[in-house]
Amino acid sequence: MFNENLKTLRKEKGFSQEQLATRLNVVRQTVSKWEKGLSVPDAELLIQLAEVLNVEVSDLLGKKIEISEDQSEMDVLACELAKLNELLVVYGNKLSNLKKKIGIAIGVVLVVFFICAIYDSWSDMWYQFGQNLYYMLNGK
Q: Which CATH number does 2-110 carry?
């Protein structure tokens, strides 16, 4: 949510990633990572980012932030950013697991094709299958 809000607010204010990065004294790639959801700024930078975009921090985070009397704004923001970082880690782990599963599936398919290519009877069967498929698709 932060990444989408940041991108929308940045474009509404007419800033390029480069211009926003310059105002925050970071590199453009940092802003790009924030907008892609790959990382989040620390609490101090988040406050500075809100000031540059002339919005509330809660607008960037996409939720109302309530600060109690015994907490400082920095502590609350640090807590919210920690939660965002945890979500990024979970998302990264899910993506990594998906890539592993896809890799395993591709490997299994390649092994099956390799085995089929080695054995003559399998090769004949696949050859006939291919011919039947070709004739079926071409209406012969």
A: 1.10.260.40
Round to whole Å and give the CA distance between 96 and 59.
Answer: 30
- pTM equals 0.51
* Domain residue ranges in the chain: 2-110
d(CA 56, CA 115) in angstroms, rounded, equals 61
**Which residue type sits at 96?**
S
Q: How far apart are CA 79 and CA 118, in angstroms?
A: 59
Structure tokens at 69: 């009397």
Report yes or no: 116 and 126 within 8 Å, Cβ to Cβ. yes
List pLDDT tens digits, range 17-42: 999 999 999 999 999 988 888 888 88
